[in-house]
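Hey,

Quick one before I head out. I ran the complex with adenosine-3',5'-cyclic-monophosphate overnight. Inputs first:
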Amino acid sequence: MSTLFLVGCHKTAVETVTSDYQSIEKNFQRVVSVSGLHSLFHKLYQDRIQTLPNRWNYETGVSMVILGTDKYDIRQLVSLRDRFVPTFNLRFVMLNDPVSHWKQILKSIKMEQKLCKLRVRRMNHWMHHHHHEADIKVHEDCQDSDSCEYNLYTMLNHLSNAHRANTEANSTIPNIINDIEFAKILSHYDNELESLPHGLHDKDYYLNLFDNWNFSALNLTTRQLIIGGFHILSTLAEQANIEVSENHLLLLLFTLEASYHQINRFHNFKHAIDVMQATWNLCKILLPENHELTLLICLAAIGHDIGHPGTNNSLFWDECDLSKLFKKTSILENFHFQMFHEIIRTIWPNVLELSTNILIKNQFNKVLDDECIIKKAILATDMSFHSNYVQVLTDKTRSEITTMEIISFIIKAADISNVTRPLDVSAKWAYLITLEFKDCANLQAYNETHEHGFSCEELSLEEIEKLRIIDEKGNNDDDMSFEIELNDNIMKEPFQLLVLLENYPMIPKGQLFFINTFAFEFFNKLSIQFPALKFLIDNINSNKEYWLSKSD
Ligand SMILES: Nc1ncnc2c1ncn2[C@@H]1O[C@@H]2COP(=O)(O)O[C@H]2[C@H]1O
């Protein structure tokens, strides 16, 4: 769904300037007038935290912001988007731009609105597309450019623009963002159905909710995930004596949520909070009272998959920019760290200092300049090094295992902890990863039948038809079909596991493969080295029994 925002101007003015308002209104499902940038960003954040399925997620559409006065600088707005709401497909236009520029913009927005409804094509665009310099130039001198313009999210733009924008702003937070009262956004509801029984300041409720292994992030709304993450991090910051204001910590959580793809099946903000919750509980067992390290590893956990495209490292083209930039090594994990680094250096810089200082203090091998505890933890989640960690658990005695290795074990265990959750919780995650694996297979099929093109070329009708065939039926048009299915038939309580397995009979075999190939050995050896973690392997064994009984 796409929104047309009018900032300090009226519909009639737009009609006059473009003289074809009808085609504009046809492209957008709603028109929202706001008085200024503060209320624009307030509205963006309010929409983003609506309960799923959330049609106003700013990802399955391309929205446009028309600026009625030239007191705003377009580049400043693009920088705000790239730094604080990077996954939002938002285009900024000056009302008095030349009509030729309007025509070019509407043409590209129309094409990209089609593109971002095609899941497979969208993932491919995220991973590989880059906007030529010319696209950026269009903002400056508003000249017509025949290349695809700068509206849809891509990982490369996320990486390069966030870094450049942060550097230009020397990592300060602009007043437009600083003045937003995030507690108010959390407590404002469009309709009473959204109202929470436990609000932002119900700290004990959230700490209890997050303080046990039966936790399921999938049963929480985006609002509750943000509030839970807030209470964990503020408790850890207090214990570690690291300063942070309530509004800044909420800004961090809103920015993190806006940096994950809300429309991903598995690798979304729910997964980020789930991994952070598991990390927090494992730290209490393996690093008791080590508050500084616990804070850093929990931050690494909440940021460990930022901007994840819902695919995997093997699906990146060798010739693409991100493969070359990261030398085809841990492409995703390096990308996640870089993006998280940009957010933290802006919103919570003293944590970055702590992350580097602890590395030096412990003589952990600090090799590169940005080397720090958070980076090492995020890179440890790359499954291509999984066997190395199993080898450490096999070869070393408990006393020989280093603190850095314990940190890696904690975040790795948390990242795949869904298989150690109680069966009903584990089965829901299994469903979601199964859907994501299907997307990956569809993307592979797409890439085998298309040459590797970097520009977001016009989608031909046959291209769209071909994609409907490749991608699952019904997931092409709009992610609402997926969300509605997800929420109506399968994920709602009371959860019906047998209904799930009737619809997805391949799940038991997929879980047995993952448990037998990766999870069992890792958690078994982990629980031998750290007997307090025995409950993890017990849960895996019990889930395995069930999957065996269902995989005739
Ligand atoms: N329940 C599961 N079933 C199958 N694969 C899983 C499951 N949980 C995690 N994984 C895989 O483990 C990987 C851990 O790293 P990623 O999050 O990049 O991607 C994850 C999936 O590929």
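Residues 66 and 93 are 5 Å apart (CA to CA).

Talk tomorrow,
K.
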